[in-house]
Amino acid sequence: MLKRGHMAREAGQIRGGVQSSRSSPERVSLKQAAYDEIKRLIVTLKLRPGERINEQVISDLIGIGKTPVHQALQMLSAQGFVEIVPRKGIIITPDSLNDALTVLEARIVIETEMARFAAQRADTTVVEALERILSGGRRALDAEDFDAFMRHDRMFHEKIAEAAGNAILLETLGALHARISRIWHLRSWKLDNLQKTQEEHTAVFRALAARNASGAADAMRLHIETLRQNIVDASIAAGDLAFTP
C-alpha cells in the first residue's frame, strides 16, 4: 500500500500559512490567496465533493475576509470547482467519470502537441531539469510515497509545458491539471500503476532529449491514454466516480 503524506492541516495552521504569505515582499492579493487555499482544500478533498459550504465558514477556516473569499468562490465557480445555488449556498462540485474523461481528452490534444513543441524548443537546462524531476520520481517510488510522486508527476508535465513556449497553452493546461488533481485523491492507486507512469515519463524524456518531436508526441499520447484507461478501470472497480450521461 502506498504511503500518503500528512494531508490534513488544522484551521489554525492554514491561517498561519496564509498570513505568512501576506508578509512576503512578493505577496499575492487576498483574492488570489483565498482562491489558492480554497482550491487546495477542494483538490485534496478537505472539502468533499457534494459538501455544502458558506462564505463565513470558509473565511473563518482560512483566515481571510469574506469579500476576497466571495471573489475567490466566484472564480472557482467559473472553473467548475463549486456550484453557487441561490438561497441554498455553495456546493463542492462532485466528480463524475465523464468529467475525468473529458479533461483527459483535452489533455491528450494539448499535451501531445506541447511535447512536440518542447522537443523542438527545449534547451539543455530544460533537459537537465526534467532528468532531476525523473530522479525525484524514482526516489518517491522507492519510498512508496504517493504524495511525493504526484508532486514530481505534476512538475514533469509543467516543465514540458513551459518548454513548449506557448503561454496560452500553458495557462490552459494548468486549469486542466487542477481539474484532474482531485481524481488522484479519490482512490488508492497501485504501485504498479505509478511505476508504469514513471516508465512512460522516461520514454517522453528520452524522445525529448533526443530532439525527436514525433517520438515525444507519441510517447505523451500513450502516457495520457494509459492514464485514461487506468481511471476508467479503477472507477468501475471502486465505484467512487459516478458515470453520468
UniProtKB/TrEMBL annotation:
GO function terms (MF aspect): DNA binding; DNA-binding transcription factor activity
The HTH gntR-type domain, residue ranges: 28-95
InterPro entries xref list: GntR_C (IPR011711), TF_FadR/GntR_C (IPR008920), Tscrpt_reg_HTH_GntR (IPR000524), WH-like_DNA-bd_sf (IPR036388), WH_DNA-bd_sf (IPR036390)
Gene3D superfamilies: GntR ligand-binding domain-like, Winged helix-like DNA-binding domain superfamily/Winged helix DNA-binding domain
Keyword annotations of the record: DNA-binding, Transcription, Transcription regulation
Start and end residues of each stretch annotated as Disordered: 1-28
UniProt-listed Pfam families: FCD (PF07729), GntR (PF00392)
Keyword Transcription: yes
Protein name: GntR family transcriptional regulator
Organism of this sequence: Phreatobacter stygius
